[in-house]
Amino acid sequence: MSYSLAELAALVDGELRGPAGLVISGIAAVDQATPQDITFITAKRYARLAATSQAAAFIVPPEFADIPRPLIVVSNPYLAYARVAALFAPPPGRWPGVSDQAYLGQGVELGQDVSIAPLTFVGDRVRIGDRTTIMAGCVLGQEVTIGADALIYPNVTILDRCRLGNRVIVHSGTVIGADGFGFVPLPTGFHKIPQLGTVVIEDDVEIGANCTIDRAALGETRIGKGVKIDNLVQVAHNVLIGDHSIIVAQAGIAGSAKLGKGVALGGQAGIVGHIELGDRVQVGAQAGVTHSLPPGQVVLGSPARPHREFSTINAHLSKLPEIYQRLKQLEERVNRMASPLTEEAES
C-alpha cells in the first residue's frame, strides 16, 4: 500500500515541505531507508545522516526544518512516526471464524467477527466481544470475559473468572489469574491460603510476553486503563496499578501494593508489598522501594532514595578509596602525635 506525502502530512497534522504527490511505500530507519521510504529524525546525531540517506522524505521537528529534502514538520516526530508506521504495519494473522479444532465449553457467548484459532481451549460461560482475536494454543478458563477488539497472542493462559476490557493486547506466554503466593507458616511446613479473588484488566492495556498477573486472595488484582506492561513482569495478588502507568521488563510488584496513575517503574525495579506509590512516581531501573512514596517523587537505588540524594551518595562512592587512604594517613599521624604523650605519662 502506498500514500502520497500530502496524505501522510494530513494524517499527522504536520507541515508539508515537499512535493505533495510524492509516493511513499514504506517506513524505515534513516540509514536503511530506500527511495520509496519515509524516515524520521528526533535528534542531532540522526540529522547528520540525512545527507547520505536514500529516504524519499523525512519526518522532523521544527529545529531540523532546514534539511534540504522533502519534509513533514511536526512538534512530536516520534508520535508522527508511530502513526505512519501503523499504516504500513501488517495486520496480525486471524483465523477465519472459529476453528473446528478449538474446544468451546457450554454457554460460551461470542460477539461478531470473533477469531478463535486451532488448539484453543475455551471454558464454560466464557464471553468474548466483537472482533476479538484468540490465537492458537490459548487457554481461557471458566467464566472468563474479554471485551471487543482484543488481541490474545498464542499460548496465553487466562484462568477462571478473570475479566479483560476492550482493545486489550496480551503477548505470548503470559499467565493471568494464577494463584497468588499465599501460605501460612507452620512448624511442619506451609499451609496454602486459597486464592478466591480474580484479575480485572481495564481497556487499552497491553501486556508483554511471559508476564504473570496473579489473582487476588480476596477481591481483585486490578490493572487500570491504558497501562503498558513490558515482558517478564510479575504482578502479585491484590496489586492495584493506576491508569496509564508503565512497567518495564523484569519489574516485580509484591502483594497488595498500590500504584497511582501515571507511575513508571524502570527495568528490574522491585516494589515491596502493602505500600502505596502516589500518582506520577518514577522508580529507576533496579531500584528497590521499601516504603510508600508521595506523588511525583523520582527515586533511584536500593533501598530507593530521592533522585538528588541518590546522586550525591553515588558521586561520593567513587571517592571512597581516596577518602579511606586519607583517613588512614590521618589516623597514623594522630597515633604518632599521641605516642610521646603516652610515654611521658607512663614515666
Provide an overview of this structure.
The protein folds into three domains: 86 residues, MurE/MurF, N-terminal domain (Udp-n-acetylmuramoylalanyl-d-glutamate--2,6- Diaminopimelate Ligase, Chain: A, domain 1, 3-Layer(aba) Sandwich), CATH 3.40.1390; 206 residues, UDP N-Acetylglucosamine Acyltransferase, domain 1 (3 Solenoid), CATH 2.160.10; 32 residues. With 347 residues, it is of the alpha/beta class. 34% of the residues are buried. The strands form six sheets. Strands 10-13-16-19-24-27-30-33-36-38-39 form an eleven-stranded mixed beta sheet, with helices on one face. This is UDP-3-O-acylglucosamine N-acyltransferase.
CATH class of the largest domain: Mainly Beta
| Helix content bin | 10-25%
CATH superfamily of the largest domain: Hexapeptide repeat proteins
Gross morphology: flat
The chain-level structural class is: alpha/beta
Distance between the termini: 101 Å
CATH topology of the largest domain: the name is: UDP N-Acetylglucosamine Acyltransferase, domain 1
Output the number of helix runs.
Answer: 5
